[in-house]
Amino acid sequence: MEKNVSGSKKQPLRVGIGGLGTIGWPVAQWLNGEGAGWGDGLVLAAVSAANKERAGDRVGEFKTAVPVVGLAELADVADVIVETAPPEHFAEVAEPAIRAGRILMLLSVTSLLERMDLVDLARETGARIIVPTGALIGLDAVRAAAMGDLQSVTMVTRKPPKALKKAKFVAEQGIDLDRLTAPKLLYRGTVAGAAAKFPANVNVAVALGFAGLGPENTQFEIWADPGVTRNTHTIKVESEAANFKMTIGVVPTEENPATGKLVALSVMEALRGLVTPFKVGT
């Protein structure tokens, strides 16, 4: 355990989780169990969910009592707020956290595109906005390349049709994905353009955009592909320092096929990275 200049132990970081769905619940369980063992560096301070009664029942089985509070109240009781709520509740979690100068660990990255004023606010309040790597790989390499002459970044996403059935664009266009027998291109253009059509499905692409050339200058395709069983992302980067191509196939969660199992694990690792004395990569 690290000590401060007075010789006393550092206080653990209090973590609040906004949303107990596919991502938030595994993270809460980890913090209650294995995650609490990181040198006493992390503690689950509070959770929030749409159904407070059900959330109370779920965390009621934890070894340490965990209060269930409103989304905006997380900033009052936690140092780190993990945002895993639906996009329509993004501001309820994010704005109070940033105004309070907290660390905001952001999963609904697409929602930030419409609230970039929050980044300016974070500069004023001393808050930090952290986007976990999530279902991608190589964001540290993209960020490094962006420090020099980064020329182009493209990403192609292929998902099983069931992972895209509830997508905003698919519903609005009345696209029937149930009977799909061949890959279907749903969108080709910039990441920024995709964000408006797929607000809950392209968070990883927006994260890639922020890591490199920006969402407006990052090229993106999204396919509904009955031939894949995993959410597959291929990234191609060309820069003065290096050219590289990366592909990852993420196993979908049973609860929500649009979200990969790697995402919750990425959040756990990002939290661990805040307190560990030894860290490899970003």
Q: How would you describe the overall organization of this protein?
A:
The protein is 32% helix and 23% strand. β3, α4 and β4 form a beta-alpha-beta unit. With 282 residues, the protein is of the alpha/beta class. It contains eleven helices and ten strands. The protein has helices at residues 24-32, 52-59, 74-77, 90-99, 109-112, 117-125, 139-146, 168-173, 191-197, 203-211, 261-275, and strands spanning 13-18, 42-48, 80-83, 103-106, 128-130, 150-159, 184-190, 219-224, 231-239, 243-250. It has two domains: 13-135 and 262-275, 3-Layer(aba) Sandwich (Rossmann fold); 139-258, Dihydrodipicolinate Reductase, domain 2, CATH 3.30.360. A five-stranded parallel sheet has the order 2-1-3-4-5, sandwiched between helices. Strands 7-8-6-9-10 form a five-stranded mixed sheet. Residues 1-8 have low confidence and may be disordered. The two termini are 22 Å apart. The radius of gyration is 19 Å and the shape is globular.
Work out the helix count. 11
CATH topology title of the largest domain: Rossmann fold
Please, what is the average pLDDT? 93
Helical proportion, percent range: 25-40%
What fraction of the residues are assigned to beta strands by DSSP?
A: 15-25%
CATH homologous superfamily descriptor of the largest domain: NAD(P)-binding Rossmann-like Domain
H/E series? EHEHHEHEHHEHEHEHHEEEH
User: How many DSSP E strands?
Assistant: 10
CATH class of the largest domain: Alpha Beta
In CATH terms, what is the architecture of the largest domain?
3-Layer(aba) Sandwich
Largest pleated sheet: 5 strands, parallel
Q: Tell me, what's the shape?
A: globular
**Helix-strand category:** alpha/beta
- Contiguous runs where pLDDT drops below 50 for at least 5 residues: 1-8
Number of domains: 2
Integer-rounded radius of gyration: 19 Å
* Strand line-up across the major sheet: 2-1-3-4-5
